[in-house]
């Protein structure tokens, strides 16, 4: 018995056409990886638009450039301290004994096609990465972007900066030239100053007495594997948290802690970010092509019995070296052991200052008792104590940079080396205090100016003569958007201990820690640290014609 099928008139015929290859691949991947739902949730994510947010992008793109150029350089670099006699293309070095690391760096610079350019791009990208991290972190600090829920992301950024410093140090030590060797020798001296463990760490790190025969190979592994791997993980974690928490934004109409006003990630933000990446890459390439950095052929190979004249670390390590250079050479002897305080104290201070910076989000949260989420950024002027503390920290940093290059300042400006060292010692204590006072007063002055603007409008520059002969300047009212920006900030109230005796006359115990916390909170948000915002009544009185012109 056979059956036959017939098509009903008007019924649609089955579509046997194959989907396009790209669509089939997308369906296959989506069925196994869930790409469609992931992309749908994140590709339209909104990002606000402000020039200061590009600082973080500069750091990210510089890091990518470092990875790309570093992979190329590893193809030609030989991380060995075995001695060879140079017979390469650079004539002034012919017949000189040097390590294989130094010889291979010379070959990269003069024999490998594009090697010198790539090497300089790599070094300049590292410098710009750390400079971008420095500025980006302080943009986050001054605007309060580190507050809940972004404390962990602040720690990620801080660790990236610190690891970047050590990655840069290990990287510029790899060529085994006289300048980098002097820096390694300085580091070994600092390690030896550590009580009890210093000699053991030095022995394990250098594989014997300095300079040993393994330090370049060990630095190479640390530089291309360990530190970049950790940093890559931190970068990925940092970006994931940026996506998860949503991006911070400055105050403005329609912007709240529950929304983000800006452009979608795809296609607008991705197009802008892609173009900006090539701008950063091009800018670094131009700098690398016209500005020589780390010309090892003019310095020579490292020899333990020599020190290069005017030896300076990269700027990001000059802060630490400045502490050591200006510290008096104090020593004490305890139980037959010598403590080199002239090195130990600067290292401890260096760690404490960086530690305070890393833990600041948690310290501020404890002081203020503020456990709310913050997605709207502060203007630095509206948090004068925090801003003043940040400027004081930057002052310490740059004062110690002067100390780290005291010999260069002395030779280039014909100054006394001792005078520079004493200036740095005094400025280390006086400079931050002066910077704190001046910055705080500037912030309060800007707050007063904002209040004046809200109440009286913008100065137009037009002079008007009144009927009775008085000349006054005409003030133009601000737009509603501008008024909102000047008045959207919060007016914080400091924590108060409250009455120590209740209504029954029973005295309540207040711990010393609570008193310290209340005092610190008052120093951050007390009456002297913020100018009261203009009230609606004040604004109505002024704009109704009963107040100022």
From TrEMBL:
UniProt-annotated stretches for the region Disordered? 1-22
Q: Does the keyword Transmembrane helix apply?
A: yes
Root EC class: translocase
- Annotated Low complexity bias: 1-14
Which segments cross the bilayer?
Answer: 53-77, 121-142, 154-174, 186-207, 219-244, 273-294, 339-363, 383-402, 422-443
Which cofactors, by name? heme
Catalytic activity, per the record?
A: a quinol + 2 Fe(III)-[cytochrome c](out) = a quinone + 2 Fe(II)-[cytochrome c](out) + 2 H(+)(out)
Pfam families xrefs: Cytochrom_B_N_2
Asked whether the keyword Lipoprotein is assigned, the reply is: no
EC number, as in UniProt: 7.1.1.8
**Keyword vocabulary terms for this entry:** Membrane, Transmembrane, Transmembrane helix
Q: Where is the Cytochrome b/b6 N-terminal region profile domain?
A: 25-251
Name this protein carries in UniProt: Cytochrome bc1 complex cytochrome b subunit
State the organism of origin: Streptomyces castrisilvae
Give the taxonomic lineage as stored in the record: Bacteria, Bacillati, Actinomycetota, Actinomycetes, Kitasatosporales
């Amino acid at each position: 018995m056979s059956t036959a099928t017939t098509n009903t008139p008007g019924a649609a015929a089955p579509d046997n056409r194959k989907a396009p290859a790209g669509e089939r691949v997308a369906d296959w991947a989506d069925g196994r990886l869930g790409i469609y739902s992931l992309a749908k949730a994140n590709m339209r994510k909104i990002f606000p638009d402000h020039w200061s947010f590009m600082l973080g992008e500069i750091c990210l793109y510089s890091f990518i450039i470092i990875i790309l150029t570093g992979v190329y350089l590893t193809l030609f670099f030989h991380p060995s301290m075995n001695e060879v006699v140079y017979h390469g293309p650079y004539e002034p070095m012919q017949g000189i004994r040097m390590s294989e690391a130094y010889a291979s760096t010379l070959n990269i610079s003069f024999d490998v096609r594009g090697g010198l350019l790539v090497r300089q791009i790599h070094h300049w990208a590292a410098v710009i990465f750390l400079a971008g991290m420095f500025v980006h972190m302080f943009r986050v600090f001054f605007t309060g972007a580190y507050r809940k829920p972004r404390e962990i992301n602040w720690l990620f950024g801080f660790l990236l900066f610190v690891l970047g410093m050590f990655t840069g140090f290990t990287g510029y030590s790899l060529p085994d030239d006289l300048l980098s060797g002097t820096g390694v020798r300085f580091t070994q001296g600092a390690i030896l100053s550590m009580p009890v463990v210093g000699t053991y760490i030095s022995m394990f790190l250098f594989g014997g007495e300095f300079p040993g025969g393994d330090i370049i190979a060990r630095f190479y592994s640390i530089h291309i594997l360990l530190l970049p791997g950790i940093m890559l993980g931190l970068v990925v974690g940092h970006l994931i948290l940026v996506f998860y928490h949503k991006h911070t934004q400055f105050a403005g109409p329609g912007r709240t802690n529950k929304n983000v006003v800006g452009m979608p990630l795809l296609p607008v933000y991705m197009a802008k970010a892609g173009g900006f990446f090539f701008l950063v890459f091009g800018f670094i390439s131009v700098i690398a092509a016209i500005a020589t950095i780390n010309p090892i052929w003019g310095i020579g190979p490292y020899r333990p019995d020599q020190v290069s004249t005017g030896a300076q670390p990269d700027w990001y390590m000059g802060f630490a070296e400045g502490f050591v250079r200006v510290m008096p050479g104090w020593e004490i002897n305890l139980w037959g052991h010598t403590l080199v305080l002239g090195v130990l104290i600067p290292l401890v201070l260096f760690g404490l200052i960086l530690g305070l910076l890393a833990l600041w989000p948690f310290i501020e949260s404890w002081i203020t008792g503020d456990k709310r989420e913050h997605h709207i950024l502060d203007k630095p002027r509206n948090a004068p104590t925090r801003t003043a503390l940040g400027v004081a920290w930057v002052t310490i940093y740059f004062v110690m940079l002067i100390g780290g290059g005291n010999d260069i300042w002395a030779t280039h400006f014909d100054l006394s080396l001792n005078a520079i060292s004493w200036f740095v010692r005094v400025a280390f204590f006086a400079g931050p205090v002066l910077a704190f006072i001046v910055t705080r007063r500037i912030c309060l002055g800007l707050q007063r100016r904002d209040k004046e603007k809200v109440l009286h409008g913008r100065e137009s520059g037009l002079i008007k003569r009144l009927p009775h002969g008085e000349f006054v300047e005409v003030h133009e009212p601000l737009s509603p958007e501008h008024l909102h920006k000047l008045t959207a900030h919060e007016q914080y109230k400091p924590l108060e201990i409250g009455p120590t005796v209740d209504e029954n006359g029973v005295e309540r115990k207040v711990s010393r820690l609570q008193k310290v916390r209340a005092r610190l909170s008052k120093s951050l948000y007390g009456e002297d640290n913020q100018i009261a915002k203009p009230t609606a009544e004040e604004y109505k009185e002024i704009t109704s014609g009963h107040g100022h012109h």
